[in-house]
Amino acid sequence: MRRRLAALLYEALLLFGVVFVAGYLFSTLTQQRNGLTHHNLLAAWIGLVVGLYFVWFWTHSGQTLPMKTWRLRVVAASGAPLSAWRAIARYVLAWLWFLPPLALHPLLGLRLPQTLVIAAIWFVLWAATGRFGASRQFLHDRLAGTRVIDVAR
Questions:
Q1: Structural domain span for residue 17
Q2: Residues in contact with 81: Cβ distance below 8 Å, sequence separation at least 6, in sequence order
Q3: If residue 18 lies in a helix (H) or strand (E), which one and from where to where?
Q4: Mean of pLDDT values over 100-111
Q5: What CA–CA distance (Å, rounded) separates 44 from 93?
Q6: Calpha distance 82→5 (Å, rounded)
Q7: Angle between helix 39-60 and helix 2-29 axes, rounded to 10 deg
Q8: CA-CA distance, 128 to 44, in Å (whole number)?
Q9: Please, are residues 9 and 15 in contact by the beta-carbon 8 Å criterion?
Q10: pLDDT, tens digit (0-9, with 9 covering 90-100), for 6-40
């Protein structure tokens, strides 16, 4: 569990660079001069780029760089390499780590501190789903039919 969460933190650091380059490319190509111009299109573009990043690595080696560092690999529940469709399903379902509490912010008119507290509680509860069940997999992995396995040295 610790290695998976450490890989998640490392992944966030690497994704900062990926998102930065994708955002720079978007703003250059669209001649964006204001952060509010085309912000929904920018969000969709970044979601697509991040999705392509994960789907590419998961379908080609089963590992991103942080997963290689922490000796983890994602495979289908049967142990086979991931198909593109299963990798896409895993990516979409992994957004359940963040989207539900963030969706409450505008829906309920919450202030930022309230939203952050709800998001933190949700994150801890979602991480706790990896502690239950015989497979010790997070809920999004169980729903997508995937699992994260340890890779021998």
A1: 2-150
A2: 59, 62, 75
A3: helix 2-29
A4: 91
A5: 16
A6: 21
A7: 130
A8: 29
A9: no
A10: 898 999 999 999 999 999 999 999 988 887 788 89
Question: Which residue, among 99, 1, 9, 94, has the nearest Cα to 55 in the 3D structure?
Answer: 94
Q: In this predicted structure, what is the pLDDT of residue 67?
A: 94
Unique residue bearing structure tokens 């998001």: 119
Which structure tokens are listed for 147? 């699992």
Task: Locate all alpha helices (DSSP H) within 30-138, ordered by sequence.
Answer: 39-60, 65-69, 84-94, 99-108, 112-128
* Strand partners for 147: 75
Q: Calculate the CA 72 to chain-centre distance.
A: 15
Instruction: Please give the tally of structural domains in the chain.
Output: 1
Please give the Cα distance from 131 to 133 (Å, whole number): 7
pTM: 0.86
